[in-house]
Amino acid sequence: MIPRLYEGGGVRHSEDGSVAVLQGRAVGGTTVVNWTTCYRTPQRTFDHWAEHHGVTGPTSAALTPHFERVERRLGVEPVLLSQVNLNNRVIWEGARRLGWEAHLMRRNVKRCAQSGYCGMGCPVDAKQSMLVTMLPDAVRCGASVYANANAERVLTTGRRVTSVIAHVHDPETDKPKGCTLTVRAACTVLSAGGINSPAILLRSGIDPNGRTGKRTFLHPVAGIIGEHTEEIRGFSGAPQAVGSQQFEVRGDRMGFTIEAAPVFPAGAAGFASCSGAALRALMARLSHLSITIAFGHDGFHLEDPDEGGTVGVDARGRPAFHYRWTPRLREYLLAANLRLAELVLAGGADRVTTLHTDPVTLGGVDQLSRIRSASFERLYYPLSSAHVMGGCAMGPDPDQAVVDDRDLRHHFFDNLFVIDGSVFPTSVGANPQLSIYALASWAAERLAQRFG
Fold first, then answer.
1. Which of 42, 144, 192, 233 has the fewest Cβ atoms within 10 Å of its own Cβ atom?
2. Rama region for 382: left / alpha / beta (φ>0; ψ in -120 to 50; rest)
3. Where would I find the H helices in 75-168?
4. Taking every pair of C-alpha atoms in the chain, what is the biggest distance, in angstroms?
5. Pair 352, 226: CB distance under 8 Å
6. Residue 449 burial by CB count (10 A; 0-12/13-18/19+): exposed, middle or buried?
7. Which residues, other chains included, contact 284 with Cβ-Cβ below 8 Å and sequence gap of 6+?
8. What are phi and psi of 195, to 5 degrees?
9. Could you tell me the residue ranges of all domains in the chain?
10. CB-count burial class (<10 Å; 0-12, 13-18, 19+) for 417
């Protein structure tokens, strides 16, 4: 299912190959393959957007009723401690022994079978993704859904979008069928995500202020593999049930959130940087492995106005993503690896291994200096992310932002809106799906008032 449901068959990456990007590519988007973790946008993020980016539209107060509405529709509920699998209990027990903050997460599921297959598309439709909630709601209200039709560009006249051009693909081969779909509407909304929305605008020649595709953020992921005497079976149960925000604020350094990652064969082999006999030996112990990750909160560095990455298009019109490897990013990766190793060892692992191309293995906290001596340069430490934000930032200034923060209308077009994670002026600093849902609900009200 990974090749079928993910952008690039699950191997979308930055232009230099240093960053892997996991994004859904299905009816329902990434909500079909995400791990069901639901956080509201942190208050500190709203405060930063207001103070440093002038955002006054989608504030915490304005979005609260929309968070509540979406949570009811998606069945968002806290995980019970009895449902937490051993992979997540590594965080729970490690944090308890270290005196760190840890909490049970909330998930958008109903009658969950605890199969663990969230990342490959829920086999029993317990995950309340857009595929089984918002899109059926829209169809019941008269919407038409066209699958296998890739939006290529929008056509404009003056300050108005006149149509959207899509290329129709064969559902079995995913190759173009040689025909196009043209959609004409009074209002056009782009919701293609943090890489594809900027790319569509750029292919369409829409970048009047030079800000399209700029300040694209990832929540860059660090990770530690733990090896345990007991059987962990991290491929079974809710992928993410416990999190820690012990290090969400780190002064002017990049804060980060700690979570678990499921331990399926493809994912575990991808996380591990070893090969040959070493990889075979590691995979033979798959059921005894834990994977614990951290993701950095990029975009909040005031002294770097173009932190993060950029999205462009290549000569063939395909998205081209570049991500900057900065001293601040390297400092975060070192700090996260040190704290993750400490946590996983406290959580019961016999030894832990980093994700370096030349992995570092240690059997106790007295060996943490090995991590401090390791390189966190580009390509020496494989980076990945499943959260893509920014690239079409919202804000009141048409010279600095792509869309107006009052309603997410494009600053230079009267009937073009962008409503997805690409409008965030920084990363969210939390798993972004609930933030995107609530923002879309808020924006939909304004669209209805304007065009209803």
1. 144
2. beta
3. 86-98, 134-140
4. 67
5. yes
6. exposed
7. none
8. -110, -45
9. 2-31+79-111+216-389
10. buried
**440: its two tokens:** 């879309």
Tokens 């350094």 identify what position? 253
Residue 9, sorted as left (phi over 0), alpha (psi -120 to 50) or beta, turns out to be left
> Is the separation of the CB atoms in 82 and 89 below 8 Å?
no
CB 130 within 8 A of CB 108: no
Closest listed residue to residue 104, CA positions, set 76, 64, 133:
76
Task: Return the residue matching tokens 């230099």.
Answer: 16
Could you give the residue ranges of the DSSP H alpha helices within 286-398?
327-346, 369-372
> Residue 59 is encoded by which pair of tokens?
């504030």
Could you give phi then psi for residue 167, rounded to 5 degrees? -100, 130
Token output for 101: 């903050």
| Helix-helix angle 327-346:86-98, to 10 degrees | 90
361 vs 178, 376, 378, CA distance in Å?
Answer: 52, 15, 20
pTM of the predicted protein model = 0.96
Helix (H, G, I), strand (E, B) or coil at 108: strand
d(CA 420, CA 195): 11
Residues in the chain: 452
Cα of 333 vs its chain's centroid, Å? 18
Residue with tokens 């700090």: 335
Q: What is the C-alpha to C-alpha distance for residues 306 and 319, in angstroms, rounded to an integer?
A: 19
Amino acid 392 reads: C
Neighbours of 405 (CB within 10 A): 23
Separation CA 418–CA 424 (nearest Å): 11
Question: Residue 441's beta-bridge partner residues?
Answer: none
Is the Cα torsion angle 302, 308, 313, 319 positive or negative in sign? negative
Question: Which residue's entry shows tokens 């993060």?
Answer: 308
| Distance from C-alpha of 291 to C-alpha of 399, rounded to nearest angstrom | 43
d(CA 75, CA 274): 40
Q: What does the radius of gyration of the chain's CA atoms come to, in whole angstroms?
A: 22
How far, in Å, CA of 347 to CA of 290, rounded?
10
In the numeric block, the tokens 């304004």 are attached to 446
> Can you tell me whether residue 106 is helix, strand or coil?
strand
- Under DSSP, is residue 435 helix (H, G, I), strand (E, B) or coil? helix
